[in-house]
Structure formats: C-alpha cells, structure tokens
Sequence to fold (133 residues):
Amino acid sequence: MELKGICEIVQKLYIYADETKKIHYSTQKNHTHELCDEIRDVILDFVDEFAEQMFGIYGKPSFNDFVSFNEIKVDGTDDLNKLCENCINLISLFYKENKNNEKLSGIISLMDDFKGKLNKMQFLSTFDKITNN
Fold:
C-alpha cells in the first residue's frame, strides 16, 4: 500500500470519530449518548496507533500526502451500528491484503483488536432498538 492510501484510511477514521460526536449531541437516548463517546475513543486510539506504526514502517508522510478533509468521502450515518460497520469495512481490504505479511504482524494484531472492540460496540448499539433510555 502506498503512503497516500494509508493517509486516506487515517483521515476517514478521524471523520468517523467525528461522526460519533454528531450522533452523541443529537440523540435522545442516554445509552447512545454514552456509547458514542466509547466508540469515538476506540476509533481514536486505534487510528493513532495504526498511523504511528504504519508511518514507522513506510516513512512519514508529507503534508501533501493528506488531502483536504472536504475531499474525503465517507458514508455518513446517524446509526452507530452502521458507523462501526463502515470503520471495519474501511480497514478490511488492507487487512485481507496484508494478514500474512510478517512485517505487518503487529498492525494486523492491532486491527484484530480494533475489529473485536467495534463488533462489541455494534452489538451494544442494537440495544437502542429495544429500549427508550
């Protein structure tokens, strides 16, 4: 994967983290309100560690390797379940292409942990459909 592709993944994950705040502020459900912050923290922790490790292996990007956030397209949603799915889908292609790359085994392990946490968050987000709290 080239550096610009890594930068795009990083930027999209930051946008998804920001999307959780939009949901956080607009929801009427306390469960969703709290879950948004937890999901945001999981995304931000992952994206920072992912970026640091990837840039450590592939070299630091230049400022121009990143595009304007206005140019990044993500599937915006007010559904936390879908947001988690979008994050998982975003890293899945990279994961699939590199899961057997020994050089990236630490990053693959990091991705496994991230996907596991987001799968749990997806499950917890379904509680909104059965409760009014």
Observations:
- The helical segments are 3-26, 30-58, 80-98, 105-125.
- The chain has a mean pLDDT of 89.
- Residues 52 and 87 are 18 Å apart (CA to CA).
- The chain has four helices and no strands.
